[in-house]
Structures are given as C-alpha cells and as structure tokens.
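Sequence of IclR family transcriptional regulator (Gordonia asplenii).
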Amino acid sequence: MADIGRATLILDAIAEGREPLTLTELATRTGLPRSTVHRIVQALEQELFVVRVPERRGYTLGPGLLKFGMNAHLRLLGSNRNQMAVLARAVNENVELAVFSGREVVVVDQLASPDRLRGVTKVGKSFSLHASSIGMALLAHLPDEQVAELLQTPLTRFTANTVTDLTQVRHRLDEIRRSHIAIDVEEHDLGICAVATGFVGPTGALQVVCVVMPTGRFADKRAQAIEGLQRINPAIVPSAVSLRR
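Predicted 3D structure, token representation.
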C-alpha cells in the first residue's frame, strides 16, 4: 500500500474517533505498524492535517484540511441545488443531500418544504448506515467486502422497524442495487419515512438525494417521491422497488 493509502487510513481513523487517538490506538485501528503510523503522522502534522491535543495525548484532524473540505463542500452543494429545488417543489416535502462520513452518513444540505419537518433532520446530522435510506442507498454502491467492513455488528436498533440482521441487510442491498431506490419506514425515527437514491454526482462524488416526510403522508406520496427522484437519477427502476418497505 502506498503512503497516500496509509495516510488515508490514518485520517479516516481520526475522523471516526470520538476522542483524540494516540499512535498506539491509530496502529490498532488501521492495522499498520506503529513505526509507520508515527512516520506518516509526523508528515501530516507538518502540513497541519493533524494536530496534537495538549490536554490529552493524541491527535485530531487539523485546520490544514479545511481548504479541501470547504472547496469540495461548495462544489457538491452548487452542483445539486437546482435539481433538489425542483424536486422539493414537486413533492412539497423536505429534500436532502447526504454523503459518507466514516462509518456513518451525514446530511450536507437540505431544502425544506413549507410544511417542513422540524427537529428531525438538519444539516450536519449523521445517521447509521444500516438504519436509514440514505445510508442504505450509499452502501448499495459498495462491494460486499467493503459493506462488511463498514457494518460493525451488533447493529444498533433505533426503532422496532430497524433491520439489525446482517443477512437481511444484505438482501435489502441487493434489492436497492436492482431498483436504485432505498426506503426507510420509521427505521431510524418513529413517525418519519424517507425515499432515497444514490449515484455518482457531477463532482464525481458518491452521494444520495432523499425525500423525507411524516409517516402519515408516506403512503400517498411514495410513488410521487420515486418519480421525482427518477428525474435526478434515470437509473431508477420503479417496478423493481420492493413493496415490503
């Protein structure tokens, strides 16, 4: 593995960590030798891609990454806004844009309908991959080996509808790969349903666009939401969407 790949592993581990990580902890999480981690972290520290935390031994992401993150974020939002606005007007429901964030999926943009959902989803909120339509739509684009790495068992149960059996999750991913549509019926939050599609966007990034609505409107608006998403992702096959979800 080239140094760029090792550096990516280290940065991903730090990004996923809830607290600063020491060299030993980084070696354990990445599977790299401690000497290799030390050498690469030193190089990353020189560029301020990682910084040491004075109060605790360990490293966090540094300000050197901001210029890359901000530029990519603005390009991602700008390339999707128009289509999201058309979809939001068509379905009169919240429309969201999300991307991978380590072992979770994070909402990076939202267009709210006049009758918006309050306090459920907001920009910056992250969701578990297995318990959300946005997460499942992204996972469906990955090979099974990578899915297995990302889904650490036991899977967390958020509601009675959350699918926590890994075999069932894999079956659902196969369905999503055929239809290009992922559906969440109160799997992450009671009273909330969502329909999502994942695809490689204009910036080259794997992303997902999602329509979110209260459960009370889902049965009537599900087909309309799928039709609207199909205008954004022509690969969607409505006839292949499972009626069970």
